[in-house]
Amino acid sequence: MLEKLLVALLNCSAFTTNQNIIRECGGLSCLVTLLTHPKKTIIIKAVQVLSNLAMNEKNQACLKDSVFEIIKNLEYCDVLDDDDVITEHLKLMVNLSVTNTAHEEIMTGAQAFFDILCRSHSEKIQKEVLRLLVNLSCNTNNLEGLLGLKPLLILQTFMLTDNQDDIVLRAVTIVANLLSSPDGYTEQQQAVITEHLNVLYGELMRLLDHTDENIQSQAKRALRSIFAFRMMYTT
C-alpha cells in the first residue's frame, strides 16, 4: 500500500502546484522519515519523490535541514552493492544543488561525494557525483572547501579520453570552475593547484583535440585560467 502511494506521489510531484500542496500538508518531513525504511524499494521511491519536489525553490529551503540525513544515508550505503539507492540519493542532491539555497549544507558531504566517486565502478553513480560537483563548483563560495579536498588529481582520471564523453565533459567543467578565480586563491589553495598544474595542463591540452566541441570549450576555459594563474603566482 505504501509503495503504491509513493508511486502516485511520484506521478503527481513533477507539477509545481502539487509540489506546493505536498509541502504545505507536511509531506516533506514524512518522506524524509522514509529514507530509513527497512525496504529498499520504499527508500528508492521516497527519494525519487523528494527529487521531484526538490526542483521547487521553496521546497529546497524546507529540505535544507534534511541534507545531513541524506548525506548520512549515502555514507551508510555499500558503494558496490547499493547502486540504485546511491544513484537516487545523488539525483536528489543534484536537484537540491541547482540553486545555492542548500549549498552550505550539501558541502558538508563533499568528502563523502569524492569518496563515492573514487570507490564506485558504476558509470551511473560517477555521472551523478560529477553532476553534483558541477553545481557546487559553480558557486565561488564553495571553492575553498572543494580545493581543500585536493580534487584535481581525482578529476584528472575522469578527463582521460577512454571515459564516456559526458563524464569527461563534467570532469573538465568542474576543473574549469575550480580554476576560474585565479586572483582570489589563498596560499594553501595556490599550493594545491600548483602541485598538479603540469599534469593537469597536459590533460587539458589533449582535450583540445577532442571531437566534442563542449569538451574543447571547457578545456580552453580551464587553460586560460591556468595561464592567468601562472602569471600571478609563478613569476
TrEMBL record:
Its main location: membrane. SUPFAM superfamilies: ARM repeat. ARM repeats lie at residues 26-60. Gene3D superfamilies: Leucine-rich Repeat Variant (1.25.10.10). It is a single-pass membrane protein. One of its GO terms (cellular component) is mitochondrial membrane. InterPro entries: ARM-like (IPR011989), ARM-rpt_dom (IPR006911), ARM-type_fold (IPR016024), Armadillo (IPR000225), Armcx_regulator (IPR051303). Keywords: Membrane, Mitochondrion, Signal-anchor, Transmembrane, Transmembrane helix. Pfam families: Arm_2 (PF04826). Coiled coil: none annotated. Residues 3-180 form the Armadillo repeat-containing domain. It is found in: Membrane; Mitochondrion membrane. It comes from the Eukaryota. Belongs to the eutherian X-chromosome-specific Armcx family. This is Armadillo repeat-containing domain-containing protein. It comes from Pocillopora damicornis (Cauliflower coral).
